[in-house]
Amino acid sequence: MEFNLETFKKLNLSPNQFILLYALIYKEDSLYQQLKDKLGIYCNNVLFQLQKEGYIKLDEDFKPILRKKALDLKGNDKKNPKVRANNILDKFRELFPTGSNNGGYRYRGDKQGCLNKLELFFKDNPDYTDEEVLQATKNYIDRFKPTYQGMRQAHYFIKKDKVSDLLGELEGLNEIPKKSKSRVVGL
Fold it and tell me: What kind and span of H or E run contains 58?
């Protein structure tokens, strides 16, 4: 489900509840903090209402925990590049080995860099499924085993200098490998 005017009407929440719920679901910490600062003590009332509606649970420290009802809203938003990137980020990075390459750079790169590049990738290439992205990534990494020498870091695999190795791997998923013809050369 996309967070837009139609969703706002459908959920029947106040504007403050809607924006606060959005910030919680999509982990927009700066937006959440900005709302808390602007709403002041009234923010607690908004959180209580979201709890009453079944979207969150407030823990003993008054921190909101998303409930299934809220998580289902996020899960239904399959076309949103930000949501897609968030959904596969951990699985994507876990495909890369732990540790560092010979230059001292971590194979998995940094989490935020991968997230930003995945989001842009999905924005530019919405037709590829999450499963295809993960399979293409696995195929790429498997070719570099066991030493991983020459393999790009995760965020550079997605895109570096206007070139996407990920996109090349995705295009390669549909290629049928040609059978090599052996030649016997007489000695």
Answer: strand 56-58
